Amino acid sequence: MESHYRFTRGEVARAVRLVLGQAVFDVDRALWSRVIDDYVACPKLSVVDVYLVADAERRGATPLLSLDKKLIAQLGAVAP
Fold first, then answer.
1. CA 42, CA 10: separation in Å to the nearest integer?
2. Is 76 left (phi over 0), alpha (psi -120 to 50) or beta?
């Protein structure tokens, strides 16, 4: 949505939160709330990156090993 529609991260976050607020979607709302918060707070990381960290923490699969220097620096992943 950022590149194609030129939305800001804040606009993307608001849109995703609106979708997640619909009862018809069966998703882990706490996980996705965390993902969206980190996505807005870490502008150099993709939503996929922040999801990986949040999901690893939720599952107790930490530390998350990564070769991504930005992910290591901003969200505490660990280099192998």
1. 12
2. left
Q: How many domains would you assign to the chain?
A: 1
In a domain, residue 80? The reply is: no
| Residue 76, helix vs strand vs coil | coil
What is the extent of the structural domain holding 57? 2-75
In a domain, 26, yes or no: yes
What is the pTM (predicted TM-score) of this model? 0.84
Classify the C-alpha dihedral 33-34-39-42 as positive or negative.
positive
| Contact status, residue 47 vs residue 35, Cβ threshold 8 Å | yes
- The answer as to whether 11 is a domain residue is yes
Tell me the per-residue pLDDT of 19-64, one tens digit each, with 9 for 90 and over. Answer: 999 999 999 999 999 999 999 999 989 999 999 999 999 999 988 8
